[in-house]
Amino acid sequence: MANFGRFKTKNNLYLMYHLKRSGFIKTQRVYDAMYAVDRKYFIDLPFSYIDAPQLIGYGATISAPHMHAHVLELLQDRLRDGGRALDVGSGSGYLTTCLAYMLGPHGTTIGIEHIPELQEKAKSNIEKCYPNFLTYGRIELIVGDGRLGYLPKAPYDVIHVGAAAKEVPQPLVDQLAFGGRLIIPVGADSSNQTLIQIDKTMDGEIERKSLMGVVFIPLTDKDYQLKSLGLCSLQ
């Protein structure tokens, strides 16, 4: 994929223009969601509108806007009012909020994150732009191991994983609804990762498709992530 790291815009409208012109935003639904969920609430200026991944603390990142646009396009036809989504490694809460916006007023999006401080940061970010999403249950933020999914709200029409797993966690496949879609980067290291699409048909069959090469931080447990940064456990 092309490197858009040097592309900087003045505001969210200019960013949407860039993503649409570059072909990452293809549908009006994705355009509307990303325009409505302004990145300035999730990553501080002047980094809000740079089309590149940004560090958000504790070894986590917020993906580049073009990657978020690509993922939302892959999921948009499964995001229907009243549906359910699971965002694994919800981090800043940005994509969680986009998913909730696209699911409509009767939908539920679960954001699961194993670093409590990041979950608190996501809550604060969402409260700046769409506090009612939290108040009325359109978004629920959970502290936990996303590799296990979140069984109390399963099954999910869409599942997004924002970090690379060595292999697809079976609990996520199990918690996918019939007709649902899972998007996950898979690979042992950052030099050999592939974005994978997994669909569960209405008959329960699993269809797997390799989409493209990507680079994501690893999907690990909390202690491993913190040890890699030289930090102690937060428990």
TrEMBL record:
Gene3D superfamilies attached to this UniProt entry: Vaccinia Virus protein VP39
InterPro entries attached to this UniProt entry: PCMT, SAM-dependent_MTases_sf
Family: Belongs to the methyltransferase superfamily. L-isoaspartyl/D-aspartyl protein methyltransferase family.
Subcellular location: Cytoplasm
PANTHER family in the record: PROTEIN-L-ISOASPARTATE O-METHYLTRANSFERASE, PROTEIN-L-ISOASPARTATE(D-ASPARTATE) O-METHYLTRANSFERASE
Pfam families hit by this protein: PCMT
EC number(s) per entry: 2.1.1.77
Enzyme class per UniProt: transferase
NCBIfam families noted in UniProt: pimt (TIGR00080)
Catalytic reaction list: [protein]-L-isoaspartate + S-adenosyl-L-methionine = [protein]-L-isoaspartate alpha-methyl ester + S-adenosyl-L-homocysteine
Record's keyword terms, sorted: Cytoplasm, Methyltransferase, S-adenosyl-L-methionine, Transferase
Membrane-traversing stretches: none
Name this protein carries in UniProt: Protein-L-isoaspartate O-methyltransferase
